Amino acid sequence: EAKNNSGGSTVQRSKSFSLKAQVKEMCTACQKTVYPMERLVADKFVFHNSCFCCKHCHAKLSLGSYAALHGEFYCKPHFQQLFKSKGNYDEGFGRKQHKELWVHKEVESGTKSA
């Protein structure tokens, strides 16, 4: 315990305080030291607040406005633009397209009624 000179109140120091050098965290983007006041963690990657930007347009990101893929960070509009599946969801995976099934049904119904 130490006495405060101004008012005589008591100030307690944490017993867990250590003089050992703290491990410096490095920003994923700029590789410079990140101090606690400017620290942001997204998907276990440490950034400066100002370095947390979209890889595509470099817009500043926040924890509620980003999407990540393979350690790369994007604003949501660019993530959708760059990685959204294009085309029909029923194609692929070894399945026939639904429109092909419709053609077969039309042909079958046409031959039966003729």
Short description:
The chain is an alpha+beta fold.
Query: According to CATH, what is the class?
Result: Mainly Beta
Q: Order of helices and strands, N to C?
A: EEEEEEEEHH
At the fold tier of CATH, the topology name is: Cysteine Rich Protein
The number of helices is 2
Q: How confident is the prediction overall: mean pLDDT?
A: 77
Please give the structural blueprint.
Blueprint lengths: L1 E2 L6 E2 L13 E2 L6 E2 L4 E4 L2 E4 L17 E4 L2 E4 H8 L14 H16 L1
Explained architecture:
Helices cover 21% and strands 21% of the residues. With 114 residues, the chain is of the alpha+beta class. The protein has one domain: Ribbon (Cysteine Rich Protein), CATH 2.10.110. A two-stranded antiparallel sheet has the order 1-2. The radius of gyration is 29 Å and the shape is rod-shaped. The termini are far apart.
Structure keywords:
single chain, 114 residues, alpha+beta, Cysteine Rich Protein, 2 helices, 21% helix, 21% strand, Znf_LIM, metal ion binding
